[in-house]
């Protein structure tokens, strides 16, 4: 189903490299990891990734995007 991630699936987190350069942004990066990340071997998590959360910095703002990962078969 296009546009919907499955319940229990884990997101892949992607960060802009600037999050490692600024101390304030590195704290926010850890906050986002703790908030949106799935603990390893969590009993209710699924063993696949079907969406990506990306965090980037532009115009002095943090931009969050959600991308769907779909496997197309031809």
TrEMBL record:
Family of this protein: Belongs to the BRX1 family.
InterPro entries given in the database record: Brix, BRX1
Protein name, UniProt field: Ribosome biogenesis protein BRX1 homolog
Transmembrane feature ranges: none
GO terms for biological process, alphabetical: ribosomal large subunit assembly; rRNA processing
Keywords tagged on the record: Nucleus, Ribosome biogenesis
A Pfam family matched in the record: Brix
Nucleus in keyword set: yes
Brix domain segment(s): 1-74
Gene source species: Engystomops pustulosus (Tungara frog)
PANTHER family: RIBOSOME BIOGENESIS PROTEIN BRIX, RIBOSOME BIOGENESIS PROTEIN BRX1 HOMOLOG
Chain's role: Required for biogenesis of the 60S ribosomal subunit.
GO molecular function: rRNA binding
PROSITE patterns reported for this sequence: BRIX (PS50833)
Entry's localization field: Nucleus, Nucleolus
């Amino acid at each position: 189903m296009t546009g919907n991630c499955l319940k229990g699936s884990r997101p892949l987190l992607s960060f802009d490299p600037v999050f490692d350069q600024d101390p304030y942004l590195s704290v926010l990066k850890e906050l986002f990891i703790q908030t949106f990340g799935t603990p390893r071997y969590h009993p209710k998590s699924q063993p696949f990734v079907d969406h990506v959360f990306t965090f980037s910095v532009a115009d002095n703002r943090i931009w969050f995007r959600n991308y769907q990962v779909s496997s197309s078969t031809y």
